[in-house]
Structure formats: structure tokens, C-alpha cells
Design brief:
Blueprint: E1 6-14, E2 20-29, E3 34-38, H1 45-52, E4 60-65, E5 68-69, H2 74-78, E6 81-84, H3 96-106, H4 111-124, H5 140-151, E7 158-162, H6 170-185, E8 189-194, H7 197-203, E9 206-211, E10 214-219, H8 221-227, E11 232-238, E12 241-247, H9 250-259, E13 265-269, H10 272-291
């Protein structure tokens, strides 16, 4: 049986200042899936992926990439990955084509193969008209597209992307989503982090919700909604404010508000944002109760 692309067990990371960035995280990325780690800035997403990509050593726990211990054999594990860090930078004196050819050679491709792969990626990334532009002449969306191309150069079986659409306008973001969905259709396994609810819902086969370094849930969006009673929501006017109730059945929600004498309301399917807010609100309530 083939080992999964990523297998994380009881992973924790504590920095020297005493801050726990991750606490006992366990997850498995399945072959060919696009798995998203969702959470606000500071939730511990980047720390998690930097341990998976061998940039950080865990305080405790285990990370395996295709069965390889990513701490003990980090060079071997890294060879299976194409990585796009959140703060990745381009060389502004190099063109798009030169970036791809040089990084191809750095990934072990011959000069001829690097040149061929660069041309393939320029076509895949829809960068033909920008091939000879220097990096500082590119828009934010084109830069992010090029960075993903660099991560994909050696056809890695696993791509790890930290906030790939950060800072992009809506049009550039949707172009990037199309690119990532194309790679998934071609069989790539992709692990990405995001704080964008819509991005996670549109792109991901499964979503992990992380807060304060802990993984609160990991499942498909539909299962997250059904499993936590958030399949539907109903909104109604409660005097000075609008109230929202969540439930597994739209009929049950309608019955609840009608029993209160409310006749004007709106029923809708919940979004991932509703699930996220519900889970994190429950977590904060438990933490406050535990501290009191």
C-alpha cells in the first residue's frame, strides 16, 4: 500500500519565547486531493507547513512525506515537494523564462530539459506574452502564477503552497484558482493554507480549520456543515438586530421561528464561513469556561 503524501501525527511546535504555535496536530493528505488549511493570520498555518516542508523542526510529533521521515531524512523528503512559501521573492533582474530555466537546473534538470520544461510551464501558466518581462514588470497576479510555476518545475508529486492568493485582486485570484484546479485534475496532490473562506470552499476537497495552533476539524465542506448542525441558516429581524439560527434541517428552523410568531425570515444554505465562526466560537467558549 502506497504511503500517503503527507502524514502528520501529534505535531507540536513551541518557540523559544514559550509560544505554542502548533499543538498536537494530526492529519493525512490523501493522494490526488487538494487539502486546505483554513484559519486567521497567526493561527499556526504557516508554522504547520514549514514543518511539513522541513524548514522547521517540530518540538514533538512526526511528519512523514510519502513514508519518509521529514526530520531525519529532510533532503529526501524535500525532493518530493514543490514549495511556495508565503513570503517567496523573485529576482527582479531575471525574466519569466530565465526564472523557470534557472530554477529548473537547481531542481536537477539538465539544461535542455530545463529549457523544455520552462516552455511547457509558460504555456500552462498563460505567460506567453510575458515570457521576456523582468519580474519587477509583472503584476501581483502574474508574480504569484510564476511562483507556482517554480514550485511545479520538477513535476513534484506534492505541492505545498502557503497563502498562494494573498494580496491578489478578485480577477487574479480566480485565474490562480483555475490554475490550481488544473493541476489537481492532472493528478497533483496539493496542500495549501488560506484565510479566505471562499477560496477554501471553491478549491478544496477537504478543509482543516485551525485556531490557536489546534486543528478543530478536518473534513469536506458538506460533512463539516452536516456534522456540526450547520447545513442551513435562518435569519430574521429581532428588533434592533438581525438574528441567525443554524440547524441541520431548513424545515426545523422554519418551525422554530414560526413558533415564536415570526413571519418574515430568510432561509439559506450555510457557507464555510458560518461553519468556521460556529466552531471557533464554541472553542472560545470552552476556553473561557475552562479558565473561569
Amino acid at each position: 500500500m502506497q504511503a500517503p503524501p503527507v502524514d502528520v501525527k501529534q505535531l507540536s511546535k513551541r518557540y523559544k519565547n514559550g509560544v505554542w504555535a502548533n499543538r498536537e496536530i494530526s492529519l493525512t493528505v490523501e493522494p490526488g486531493e487538494l487539502l486546505g488549511i483554513l484559519g486567521p493570520n497567526g493561527a499556526g498555518k504557516t508554522t504547520l507547513v514549514r514543518q511539513i516542508t522541513t524548514e522547521l523542526i517540530p518540538t514533538s510529533g512526526e511528519v512523514r512525506v510519502f513514508g519518509i521521515d521529514a526530520v531525519a531524512n529532510y533532503n529526501e523528503a524535500k525532493g518530493y515537494m514543490g514549495v511556495m512559501p508565503q513570503e517567496a521573492q523573485l529576482y527582479y533582474g531575471l525574466s519569466v523564462r530565465h526564472h523557470l530555466r534557472i530554477f529548473g537546473k537547481l531542481r536537477g534538470l539538465s539544461g535542455r530539459m530545463a529549457a523544455r520544461r520552462a516552455e511547457e510551464l509558460i504555456a500552462d501558466l498563460r505567460l506567453e506574452e510575458h515570457r521576456n518581462k523582468l519580474a519587477d514588470e509583472l503584476s501581483g497576479g502574474l508574480k504569484r502564477r510564476l511562483l507556482i510555476g517554480i514550485a511545479a518545475l520538477a513535476d513534484p508529486p506534492l505541492m505545498v503552497l502557503d497563502e498562494p492568493s494573498a494580496g491578489l485582486d478578485p480577477e487574479a485570484r480566480h485565474d490562480l484558482w483555475d490554475l490550481l484546479l488544473g493541476y489537481r485534475r492532472q493528478g497533483s496532490t496539493i496542500l495549501l493554507t488560506t484565510h479566505n473562506m471562499e477560496e477554501a470552499e471553491v478549491l478544496c476537497d477537504r478543509v482543516g480549520i485551525i485556531q490557536d495552533g489546534r486543528l478543530l476539524a478536518l473534513d469536506t465542506v458538506d460533512n463539516l456543515k452536516a456534522g456540526h448542525g450547520f447545513a442551513y441558516k435562518i435569519m430574521f429581524d429581532a428588533g434592533a438586530r438581525t438574528e441567525t439560527l443554524y440547524g441541520a434541517s431548513d424545515r426545523e428552523l422554519v418551525a422554530q421561528v414560526q413558533a415564536k410568531g415570526i413571519r418574515q425570515y430568510a432561509v439559506a444554505r450555510t457557507t464555510l464561513e458560518d461553519v468556521y465562526l460556529g466552531l471557533t466560537r464554541d472553542k472560545r467558549t470552552l476556553d473561557e469556561d475552562g479558565a473561569s
